[in-house]
Amino acid sequence: IPVESFDLVIFGGTGDLARRKILPGLYRRFLAGQMPEDARVIGAARSDMDDDGYRAMVREAIEEFVSEQKRKPDVVEAFLGQLHYTAIDAKGEGGWDKLAKLVRKDVVQAFYFSVGPSLFGDLATRLHKHKIANPESRIVVEKPFGRDQDSAKALNAVLAASFDEHQIYRIDHYLGKETVQNLMAVRFANMLFEPLWNAQYIDHVQITVAETVGVGGRGGYYDKSGAMRDMIQNHLMQLLCLTAMEPPSQFEPDAVRDEKLKVIRALDPVAAENIVRGQYAADEDQASYIEHSENPESKTESFIAMKVDISNWRWKGTPFYLRTGKRLKARMSEIVIQFKEVPHSIFEEDAGSKANVLAIRLQPDEGMDLRVTIKEPGPGGMRLVDVPLDMTFAEALGPEGADVPDAYERLIMDVIRGNQTLFMRGDEVEAAWAWTDPIIEGWQKRGDKPAQYEPGTTGPEDALMLLHRDGRRWRELK
Ligand code: NAD
Fold it and tell me: Is the dihedral of CA 169, 173, 177, 179 positive or negative?
């Protein structure tokens, strides 16, 4: 179903994010028939070029970042026909009057701030000064949203000076993933899970976001951030919130975000012994984190594992273990719900009974896997075996199910529809920083150094110990 007609201005429309994600995503929505024929995308950035120059750049981006099977030459050309470009200086007045003439007033207006956060204030103010934005225009902002609570508050204030909260879409692309939304469907549209979704029946939860790549050329940038700021405070925190939140009364933006905020506020402070930080060492092919960061003294972590407790009735006593890192053994993201053992087994001790596990995979192949225990087939007596009830979308839903839209595509369409459910609210982001700030300050005060770990492994040994000492183990990284 096509969305309403729109003008989407991409500030930073020539940048890496625009070329890799935003524009290819829009093309795929166009191909799917969701982008109306009179909708327009307007690139606005520093480089001097005309519409044709921009179209040539986007044609290349589509060739590079859209799968061959989806590149239909006539569709690509039709899509390019809906693109425009205007050079703009965020820090000065150049180009703004031209943009004001270009943007239509009678369609949905969205402004994607695909530029560094230092330009947010300039863009927000000039959109009003040049009478481009109206009270229903939407702005989309990217991570990182601040580096601590104070800077996030300052950014929120800068945006709030020009736009109302209902106009601000803070992207966390993890929330755009199909499985993440499916987590909510599974929890709240089935009678099966929700009654068991608490500390009485769930032993613990694991959330893993593992990457095989290192920081490479982004070392200088990453060194100011680290896994805590770059991954935990936003992506893993959002996944934790959706897993742990109470049922909202409606699937409606503020109802969902209110419940997520309550979870963040119920997080206990994390003691130093419940956190393991690491930095990858070098191997034959690649340099170490320290070499990538170009700072021989760097204490920034490229890996973190932590045990997080939530102080509320639902979760008291059921820890959430989070881990994320670079240059690990496998690229894999998943949320694992580890249920408790049955209270009393009626079968022989060595029958092989295992507790249930629900694994929600975000990548590589999105899907869910529920492990249940059954009798091993055959005449060998009552032997138990756990088997997967596997719900890989591709298999369950046929080819249509396999065609899962990229997170960015879905989120941009939500912006046009005016649906903020999958975007972070300002108070959520500030609360998340309020929880992470003291942890980071603790490291700085004590001068804590991350442990070195071998690339291609599961991270530092101590991360394994974090669970072993509680009689638990991480799911295999594969
Ligand atoms: P980039 O450096 O590749 O592109 C920056 C863009 O901003 C360019 O189009 C440039 O022309 C424009 N720009 C810079 N200064 C300007 C000015 N004064 N006036 C007008 N335009 C100006 O950056 P990027 O990687 O595309 O990232 C953009 C934003 O998205 C950043 O905030 C980044 O943190 C965030 N982000 C990027 C990625 C990614 O994968 N690249 C992922 C997540 C978040």
Answer: negative
Helix (H) or strand (E) holding 437: helix 426-446
- CA–CA separation, 163 and 111 (whole Å): 12
CA of 22 to the centre of ligand 1 (A): 12
Known binding-site residues for NADP(+) equal 12-19, 46, 143
* Pairwise CA distance, residues 452 & 461, whole Å: 10
Residue that the structure tokens 């273990």 belong to: 321
Cβ atoms 240, 263 nearer than 8 A: yes
Known active-site residue 235: yes
**53, two tokens:** 């120059």
- Spatial neighbors of 406 by CB under 8 A, at least 6 apart, are 21, 24, 25, 28, 176
- ipTM for the predicted complex comes to 0.98
What digits encode the pLDDT tens for the residues 371-405?
Answer: 998 888 888 888 888 888 876 665 666 555 556 67
Nearest by Cα to 391 from 369, 373, 372, 371: 369
Phi, psi of 349 (to 5 degrees): -55, -40
Instruction: Give the pLDDT score at 366.
Output: 82
CA of 12 to the centre of ligand 1 (A): 5
H-type alpha helices, 10-50: 16-17, 23-31
Which residue from 9, 16, 57 has its CB within 8 A of the most atoms of ligand 1, so it is best to mutate?
16
**Low-confidence residues of the chain: pLDDT under 50:** none
Residue ranges lining ligand 1, Cβ < 6 Å: 12-18, 45-47, 88-91, 114-117, 119, 142-144
CA 258 to CA 249: how far, in whole Å? Answer: 10
Predicted TM-score (pTM) of the model is 0.95
Q: Whose CA is nearest to atom 42 of ligand 1?
A: 17
Closest CA to 260 of 240, 278, 274, 282: 240
Look up residue 233 and give its DSSP letter. I
Q: Which residue in 172, 67, 168, 117 sits closest to 410, CA to CA?
A: 172
Structure tokens at 122: 């300039």
